[in-house]
Specification:
Blueprint: H1 2-19, H2 26-43, H3 58-66, H4 79-97, H5 101-114, H6 119-131, H7 135-148, H8 153-165, H9 169-182, H10 187-204, H11 215-219, H12 222-232, H13 235-249, H14 252-267
Helix pairs in contact: 1-2, 3-7, 4-5, 5-6, 6-7, 6-8, 7-8, 8-9, 8-10, 9-10, 13-14
């Protein structure tokens, strides 16, 4: 039962972090609080039971477990292979500076084949893959780097960029938060986190369709004014508007007055 409680504690800790994010609506935050209270009640634990805290964050445990079988086999590389791999990494870095991203990917891949234990090679290849718009591959490489080195802040940061590029804003926010936990003074992580949080708020908003509607520009558009004026001269439209205004205000006279006012506005 103790292992179950440790797992539940990790889940509660994760949910508590999520509930404090300003990317969720008040109703969603309340739902998270309810979930936390239910778990605490059922398993008779709370966040004050710090002795139940696992050595790793829930996200780290999940990442390590999920990608355990997807990683390249870890083995001891020969010293000469390690040296050659490092040379290939430098070559890849030079290709990145020259914006030759395909060649950079090739160099990093060959370095990984020689030394699959080095998280830097996966992270660098992720950067090159992102430049080629291969975001899914970039995310996989970042996850492999994190599985090798869970405290590699740059891997979390680059994964956040790739996740943002494929509109996975919630996951990107989590990645940037972890990057900042490991490197709190990094301004790039801070600014990218704000961008991801704003995008998450935009898509979570009922009006967050990604499109903007400028009413002021519309009503000042000459073509729109001309079209509306023509419509207002149509007897059928006038009758329809008069009926609508009458129903809304309570009498034909009011409706006609409202119609007259509307017509004058359009011709103004």
């Amino acid at each position: 039962m103790s292992s179950v409680k440790r797992l539940v504690y990790a889940v509660i800790h994760f949910l508590r972090e999520q509930s404090q994010m300003d990317t969720f609506t008040p109703d969603e935050q309340e739902s998270l609080e309810v979930a936390i209270q239910c778990l605490e009640t059922v398993f008779k634990i709370n966040l004050e039971d710090t002795h139940l805290a696992p050595p790793q964050h829930l996200i780290e445990m999940f990442t390590n477990s999920f990608h355990k079988n997807d990683m390249l086999p870890l083995s001891d590389s020969l010293p000469e292979d390690v040296e050659k791999a490092d040379q290939l990494k430098d070559e890849g870095n030079n290709h990145m500076k020259e914006e030759n991203y395909g060649a950079a990917v090739d160099c990093y891949t060959r370095a990984i084949e020689l030394d699959p234990n080095n998280a830097v090679y996966y992270c660098n290849r992720a950067a090159a893959q992102s430049k080629l718009n291969n975001y899914s591959e970039a995310i996989k490489d970042c996850e492999r780097a994190i599985a090798i080195d869970p405290k590699y802040s740059k891997a979390y940061g680059r994964m956040g960029l790739a996740l943002t590029s494929v509109n996975k804003y919630e996951e990107a926010v989590t990645s940037y938060q972890k990057a900042l936990d490991l490197d709190p003074q990094n301004d790039s992580y801070k600014s990218n986190l704000k961008i991801a949080e704003q995008k998450l708020r935009d898509v979570s908003s009922p009006t967050g369709t990604g499109l903007s509607f400028d009413m002021a520009s519309l009503i000042n558009n000459p073509a729109f004014i001309s079209m509306a004026a023509s419509l207002m001269q149509n007897p059928q439209v006038q009758q329809l508007m008069s009926g609508m205004m009458s129903n809304a205000i309570g009498g034909p006279a009011a409706g006609v007055g409202g119609l007259s006012d509307l017509s004058s506005l359009i011709h103004a």
